[in-house]
Amino acid sequence: MWDLAAQLVERERAGLYRRLRPLAPRGTVALSADGRRLNVFCSNDYLGLAQDPRVVTAFQRAAADGVGSGGAHLITGHRGEHEALEAELADFLGRDRALLFSTGYMANVGVIHALLGKTDVVYEDSLNHASLLDGARICGARRVRYAHADTADLRARLQPPAEGRQLIVTDGLFSMDGDVAPLPALARIAADSGAWLMVDDAHGIGVLGATGAGSLEAAGLGQDDVPVLVGTLGKAFGTFGAFVAGSETLIEYLIQKARTFVYTTASPPALAAASRASLELVRGEPWRREHLRRLIARFRRGVEQLGLPLMDSATPIQPLLVGEAQATLDISRALEQDGFLVTAIRPPTVPRGTARLRITLSAGHSERQVDDLLEALARLAPRWPAREDTVAAPAAATADLP
Ligand SMILES: *Cc1c(COP(=O)(O)O)cnc(C)c1O
Questions:
Q1: For ligand 1, is residue 358 a contact (CB within 6 Å)?
Q2: What's the pTM?
Q3: CA R_g for the chain
């Protein structure tokens, strides 16, 4: 029964074992524990802000006033820095109001649980982030998964409850595939069926849209089309934390009802100060998004020439499918020998048979770094499994997702 060790052995044998490793990053280059310099191509620091001196200084200055918030937001933990960040995020996103959560995981679980109960139905894209799936599980609503980005499948699966709410939930920019959800079509389905649409734009905010406001800005959708928007600060913002943005009523409701907001310590105010500095750079330095777009185009051109299996992504997430977990691990290790850190992404994070190198680009990368990565990939291209074995149709393979 308590055969944990045996399970670990089994996991190792299947090429699915995961290991922690300490890194010392300097921008997009990191020193590994054994002192080797690695070009990092798998971080979510898409705009290169995590080590920006202005963000670091804001954090340090505010931390001089103390680190811990000392309590939950509703007791003693809520500070001026939190309040100001919430107002600035709402303004940036064109929404009434925003509410901070400690992490994106907690925001997603808390919001879905607060909004839905036993008599309700939640529809989820089959490639949604684990936290969105867990929120649906915990809230007790009927759960319906639809094929990835397949709005016809969603329409066919609609089953309005006799009385109760319907919530359609999707990632904005999918974290492991790099594609964007069919947001206008989803908004139409929501409007037609009296459902609400919730978008988790953890990877889109800061990166997509004319001003970096994310996948909803790029799709031209507002608060009326998408009442619930979740964003995280640990990715393009380069800091930590998350928020929900929506109507005044939604936010007041969440303050009463979201258990992952109410029953947890407010994050350190210095983090909010750092995120405010970061938001200023997200808004004020559009060259970061422009540089990133150029790097994406450069990388895709190069990979196309190599004949490697690019996915259909116009975003900083540029996964290269390999297929089997062990083969993916082997290529990842070979890349590391060449000085590039690209973690192998394996099941259950992605469906079985679709293990991949999740390459991510950042505004912190130089063109030279991208060219060097392409050269390393060229050396490794012969080791890629034949094309027919690699690309399992992702939508068909999602049955074994957690
Ligand atoms: C990273 C991520 C989260 C979780 O956010 P954290 O702040 O890291 O907990 C939620 N949803 C998506 C799509 C993510 O990529």
A1: no
A2: 0.95
A3: 21
> What is d(CA 364, CA 47) in angstroms, rounded to the nearest whole number?
6
Residues of the chain with CATH 3.40.640.10: 65-284
With a cut of 60, say whether residue 396 has pLDDT above it: no
Among 122, 257, 253, 131, smallest CA distance to 197 is for 122
What the block records as the tokens of 356 is 């991949």
Sign of the dihedral defined by the CA atoms of residues 89, 95, 99, 103, in that order: negative
For ligand 1, atom 3, name the residue with the nearest CA: 104
- Whether the CB-CB separation of 169 and 198 falls below 8 Å is answered with yes
Instruction: State the distance from the centre of ligand 1 to the C-alpha of 144, rounded, in angstroms.
Output: 21
Any idea which fold 65-284 has?
A: Aspartate Aminotransferase; domain 2 (3.40.640)
pLDDT digits (tens, 9 = 90+) for 221-280: 999 999 999 999 999 999 999 999 999 999 999 999 999 999 999 999 999 999 999 999
At the topology level of CATH, where does 23-51+286-396 sit? Aspartate Aminotransferase, domain 1 (3.90.1150)
From 101, 131, 229, mutation site for ligand 1 pocket: most ligand atoms within 8 A of C-beta: 131
Q: Which residues are known to be catalytic?
A: 175, 203, 235
Q: Is the CB of 274 under 6 A from ligand 1?
A: no
**Cis before residue 348, ω within 30 degrees of 0?**
yes
Could you tell me where the DSSP H helices lie in 71-229?
Answer: 80-93, 104-115, 130-139, 151-157, 183-193, 215-219
In ligand 1, the atom with minimum distance to the C-alpha of 241 is 7
